[in-house]
């Protein structure tokens, strides 16, 4: 009757990513992301060029065997700059969305669990910031803090916070009404126990998936800020800044704008597809019954 | 010959056989109880009668569902629709989800009559109010205009029954129609269904897990276990002398007046899932009277006076031979 | 009258004039409304007994269960557990008191955290009370409720409804409580499984000397399982039966009894015993809450609310026109 129990797999959270990788789109999208991340990390080993050494004699070279993706107006290798740019794009978006998820969960869980005046306060602030587009929030923040990597990160963190706080709050409120929460308080459980052992573990998965999807948006937001010159400052390469400098040369050297744009587009699409694969694997109760 | 004859019906999904050789019949003015625990195949049988198996990806693999001499399993979806909702009506377990929340309940009853009987709107409307009144709904004209959320559970279930009646069916298949209702309301609905059958000469297949409900209103009973028919008999002989140990155990699950404490034991274990059907008689792991043969071979259906049982060692053998 | 059982030291649990009112929050467009889910309920549960609370949806039986265990704060009234007023306990002491009174919930699906293994579910009481888990205790508990030790590593959704409910019972037993509040523990199970669980509860009571407050909608089951029966209708107690075989005096109890289907085709009832349905608790009638559905109702029932009056020792009913002993049921 219970023979299958011993072969029960560990918690779903642990193999959610593995399951996403087993789908076809999940594997392709996830593969690209892993490859890009590795290439970004080991960029200094992969390319013979430096991202900031100018070599004006080679300026505007179209793609060739020595410069696979061509060079920019200062003769810098584009592939190299895209790889180093990936470092900025990926780390800025991942770190700031990570912080945003963390802060959003704290606020949302507190609001959803404790309710009352705390909930009304947090919800009001969240609703206010929710009513502005992320790009506007980000632009205002960068204007206050000043352009650069730190400013971009703070801007992205704050811009997406409302989304995660709202989602966490809704999740927590739904789970709060489940009987097992009542059962835990009947055992004498503290708020801390209920929050950290029951509510958050049950609420976290959709928030993480939505964080994953937001990372794609964050890459675009980072690129946008870079495009306006508000992101990473030269000579540090960022995809947005590279595209920005490419606009003036659109007809003279189109590869300067095309390749960073393509890198950003493929990455964002991959993140979205991988996020979809994650969502498809989300069904908590899809494992077999014990007979 | 019955109005509905389910004849050695087998239903499968992929390579799995969900129902095996289910046989029973029900005639006009008669209530057949289809009993068993959850997972025994009751609702699946209802889906098969309705021709709705494709909804869950299953199909009839053998046998027939004859309704008024037409084998429903051989009809295409288009011709099936002339039966479903019109001559055969269905009542589902949960009246909360059977109604469209955005439409007044009366109009939802109208639709059935307009669709199946081609009645004009105003005729359908007055007919609906007539049916609602017959179902002892007070102030039917007011109820007609209300939305599902404004009605109580019992009232909603009455509306669902009204929808079933609107097509003037010959047969009603009701899947646990009172499970979601309060006990006093359950009694009302059961009495209502019973009187409909008696007065209008309808045939009713009543699916339930509650032997109390069966005893109160059914004429014949078919007991299902793990996709097979365990026993079929008239209601009085079934309760007086259940032949299958499973039937006996099911009856013993209901507390009776003056029953000694501790005499209620239930049936050990639970209904196996399709993927884990045991060999031989599927009930043998839970049966107190099992022998080695029960594990080895599938018991064939043997005739009883007015019924059949599929058991190697049917109960009350002495009483029956005498 | 409210103190009828109070002095009795044999009572493990004494509920006195308990009332719970819920206010639905006044929103921007919705007026504030209030409903009384439990009204002026008093009862005592003696050690080692099984007291059944029976009634249909909206009668307040589940709210009562939660008030007893202090999962809800009462609007008025007190709950004494083993002589201690739970309402006067500091949070720390209340947490300690919870070890001795536990609840088994109706829905075995939502009462177990889907991310916990069975082991974690049954071990949670120890974690919550900050106590080391005695070695072998999980296996012992699972064995006590008739579950094989191997399921300890499974997740709730891998178990059947009956198995899950056994896990719920094991969790409630973990800290060796004195009182179990059973809130419709079998209502969402098949009858065959229901009988298993009832049998289990009976055995456990015997072996562990437990006291039960058993909440149910099924009068037949309550009469089988309980020593005393409290019948509730729309938040108030309408009748108290000192033994399961006591003939009811209140027409509502009678109707409940008539609605219980006996598994005997020879005993068919040909009349629906009750018409109408339970009115909304948001606008209770002025008089007897049951009057609108009652065949015995008089004009007095519509204007005045009956209180519980004693008919025989331990038998009380709140009705102006109780059914007398030798009277045939009205047809």
Tally of DSSP helical segments of chain B: 13
Name the poorly predicted regions of chain A.
1-13, 284-291
Strand order of the largest sheet of chain B: 6-7-8-3-9-10-12-11
Mean pLDDT of chain A: 84
* Beta-strand content estimate of chain A: under 5%
Report the span from N to C terminus of chain B. Answer: 29 Å
Low-confidence blocks of residues of chain B:
318-322
Which H/E pattern describes the elements of chain A? HHHHHHHHHHH
Average pLDDT number of chain B: 89
Q: Given the C-alpha coordinates, what overall shape of chain A results?
A: elongated
Quick one: how many beta strands of chain B? 12
Q: What is the CATH architecture annotation of chain A?
A: Orthogonal Bundle
Structural class of chain B: alpha/beta
Largest sheet of chain B: 8 strands, mixed
Q: Tell me the name of the CATH homologous superfamily of chain A.
A: MetI-like
Please tell me about this protein's structure:
The complex is a heterotrimer of chains A (291), B (322) and C (331). Chain A is mainly α. Helix content of chain A is 70%, strand content 0%. Chain A is built from eleven helices and no strands. Chain A has helices spanning 12-22, 24-41, 43-46, 78-114, 116-130, 134-145, 149-176, 179-186, 191-227, 239-247, 255-280. Chain A is elongated, with a radius of gyration of 23 Å. The model of chain A is unreliable at 1-13 and 284-291 (pLDDT under 50). The longest helix of chain B is centred in the middle third of the chain and has 18 residues, at 183-200. Mean pLDDT of chain B is 89; it is low at 318-322. Chain B has an eight-stranded mixed β-sheet with strand order 6-7-8-3-9-10-12-11, with helices on both faces. A four-stranded antiparallel β-sheet of chain B has the order 2-1-4-5, with helices on one face. By secondary structure, chain B is of the alpha/beta class. Chain B has helices at residues 42-50, 77-80, 95-98, 105-117, 121-134, 140-144, 153-166, 183-200, 211-217, 235-240, 245-251, 292-296, 317-321; strands spanning 4-13, 16-26, 31-35, 59-67, 70-71, 88-91, 171-175, 203-208, 220-225, 228-234, 302-304, 307-309. By secondary structure, chain C is of the alpha/beta class. Chain C has a single domain (11-19, 36-261, 281-317), classed as Rossmann fold (3-Layer(aba) Sandwich), CATH 3.40.50. Helix content of chain C is 26%, strand content 23%. Chain C contains nine helices and twelve strands. Chain C has helices at residues 61-68, 91-97, 118-128, 137-144, 161-173, 191-208, 219-225, 251-259, 299-303, and strands at 11-24, 33-46, 50-54, 76-81, 84-85, 101-104, 179-183, 211-216, 228-233, 236-241, 309-312, 315-317. In chain C, the strands form two sheets. In chain C, strands 6-7-8-3-9-10-12-11 form an eight-stranded mixed β-sheet, sandwiched between helices. A four-stranded antiparallel β-sheet of chain C has the order 2-1-4-5. In chain C, helix 3 packs parallel to helix 5 (161-173) and helix 5 runs parallel beside helix 6 (191-208). The chains are: A mainly alpha (291), B alpha/beta (322), C alpha/beta (331). At the B-C interface, helix 7, helix 8, helix 9, helix 10 and helix 11 of B face helix 6, helix 7 and helix 8 of C.
């Amino acid at each position: 009757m219970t023979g299958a129990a011993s072969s029960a797999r560990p918690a779903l959270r642990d193999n959610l990513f593995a399951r996403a990788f087993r789908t076809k789109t999940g594997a392709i999208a996830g593969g690209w992301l892993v490859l890009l991340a590795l290439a970004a990390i080991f960029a200094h080993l992969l390319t013979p060029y430096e991202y900031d050494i100018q070599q004006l004699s080679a300026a505007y070279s179209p793609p060739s065997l020595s410069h696979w993706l061509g060079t920019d107006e200062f003769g810098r290798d584009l592939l190299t700059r895209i790889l180093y740019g990936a470092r900025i794009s990926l780390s800025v978006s991942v770190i700031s969305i990570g912080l945003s998820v963390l802060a959003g969960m704290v606020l949302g869980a507190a609001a959803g669990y404790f309710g009352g005046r705390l909930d009304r306060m947090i919800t009001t602030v969240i609703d206010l910031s929710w009513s502005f587009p992320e790009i506007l929030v980000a632009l205002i923040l960068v204007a206050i803090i000043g352009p650069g990597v730190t400013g971009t990160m703070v801007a992205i963190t704050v811009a997406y916070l409302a989304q995660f706080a709202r989602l966490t709050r809704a999740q927590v409120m739904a789970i709060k009404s489940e009987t097992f929460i009542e059962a835990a308080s009947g055992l004498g459980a503290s708020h801390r126990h209920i929050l950290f052992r029951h509510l958050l573990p049950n609420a976290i998965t959709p928030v993480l998936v939505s964080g994953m999807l937001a990372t794609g948006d964050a890459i675009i937001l980072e690129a946008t800020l870079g495009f306006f010159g508000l992101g990473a400052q030269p000579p540090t390469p960022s995809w947005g800044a590279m595209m920005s400098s490419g606009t003036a040369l659109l007809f003279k050297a189109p590869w300067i704008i095309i390749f960073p744009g393509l890198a950003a587009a493929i990455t964002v699409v991959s993140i979205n597809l991988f996020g979809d694969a994650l969502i498809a694997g989300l069904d908590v109760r899809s494992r077999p019954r014990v007979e | 010959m019955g109005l509905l004859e389910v004849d050695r019906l087998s239903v499968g999904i992929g390579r799995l056989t969900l129902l095996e050789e289910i046989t029973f019949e029900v005639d006009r003015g008669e209530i057949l109880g289809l009993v068993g625990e959850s997972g025994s195949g009751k609702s699946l049988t209802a889906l098969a009668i309705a021709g709705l198996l494709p909804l869950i990806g299953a199909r009839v693999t053998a046998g027939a569902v004859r309704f008024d001499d037409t084998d429903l399993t051989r009809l295409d979806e288009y011709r099936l629709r002339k039966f479903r909702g019109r001559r055969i009506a269905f009542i589902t377990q949960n009246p909360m989800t059977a109604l469209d929340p955005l439409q007044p309940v009366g109009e939802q009853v109208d639709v059935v009559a307009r669709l199946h009987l081609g009645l004009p709107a105003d005729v359908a409307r007055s007919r609906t109010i007539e049916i609602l009144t017959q179902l002892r709904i007070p102030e039917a004209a007011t109820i007609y205009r209300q939305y599902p959320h404004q009605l109580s559970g019992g009232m909603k279930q009455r509306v669902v029954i009204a929808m079933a009646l609107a097509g003037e069916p010959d047969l009603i298949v009701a899947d646990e129609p009172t499970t979601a209702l309060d006990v006093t309301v359950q009694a009302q609905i059961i009495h209502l269904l019973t009187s409909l059958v008696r007065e209008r000469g309808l045939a009713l297949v009543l699916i339930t897990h509650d032997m109390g409900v069966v005893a109160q209103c059914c004429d014949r009973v078919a007991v299902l276990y793990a996709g097979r028919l365990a026993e079929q008999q008239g209601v009085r002989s079934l309760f007086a002398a259940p032949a299958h140990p499973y039937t006996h155990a099911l009856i013993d699950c209901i507390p009776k007046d003056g029953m000694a404490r501790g005499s209620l034991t239930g049936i050990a274990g639970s209904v196996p899932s399709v993927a884990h059907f045991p060999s031989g008689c599927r009930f043998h792991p839970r049966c107190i009277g099992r022998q080695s043969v029960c594990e080895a071979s599938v018991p064939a259906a043997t005739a009883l006076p007015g019924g059949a049982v599929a058991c190697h060692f049917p109960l009350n053998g002495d009483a029956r031979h005498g | 009258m409210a103190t009828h059982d109070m002095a009795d030291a044999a009572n493990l649990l004494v509920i006195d004039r308990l009332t719970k009112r819920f206010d639905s929050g006044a929103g921007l467009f919705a007026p504030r409304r209030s409903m009384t889910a439990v009204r002026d309920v008093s009862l005592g549960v003696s050690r080692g007994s099984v007291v059944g609370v029976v009634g249909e949806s909206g009668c307040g039986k589940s709210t009562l269960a939660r008030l007893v265990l202090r999962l809800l704060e009462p609007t008025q009234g007190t709950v004494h557990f083993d002589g201690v007023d739970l309402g006067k306990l500091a949070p720390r002491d209340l947490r300690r008191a919870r070890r001795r009174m536990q609840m088994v919930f109706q829905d075995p699906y939502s009462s177990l955290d889907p991310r916990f293994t069975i082991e974690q579910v049954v071990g949670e009481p120890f974690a919550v009370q900050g106590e080391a888990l005695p070695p072998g205790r999980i296996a012992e508990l699972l064995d006590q409720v008739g579950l094989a030790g191997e399921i300890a590593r499974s997740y709730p959704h891998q178990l059947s409804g009956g198995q899950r409910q056994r896990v719920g019972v094991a969790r409630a037993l973990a800290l060796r409580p004195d009182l179990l509040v059973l809130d419709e523990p079998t209502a969402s199970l098949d009858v065959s499984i229901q009988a298993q669980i009832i049998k289990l509860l009976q055995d456990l009571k015997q072996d562990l000397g437990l006291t039960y407050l058993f909440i149910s909608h099924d009068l037949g089951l309550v009469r089988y399982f309980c020593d005393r029966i409290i019948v509730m209708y729309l938040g108030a107690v309408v009748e108290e039966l000192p033994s399961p075989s006591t003939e009811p005096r209140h027409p509502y109890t009678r109707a409940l009894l008539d609605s219980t289907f006996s598994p005997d085709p020879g005993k068919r009832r040909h009349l629906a015993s009750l018409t109408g349905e339970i009115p909304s608790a948001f606008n209770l009638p002025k008089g007897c809450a049951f009057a609108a559905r009652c065949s015995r109702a008089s004009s007095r029932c519509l204007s005045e609310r009956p209180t519980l009056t004693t008919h025989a020792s331990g038998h009380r009913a709140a009705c102006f026109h109780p059914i007398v002993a030798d009277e045939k049921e009205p047809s």
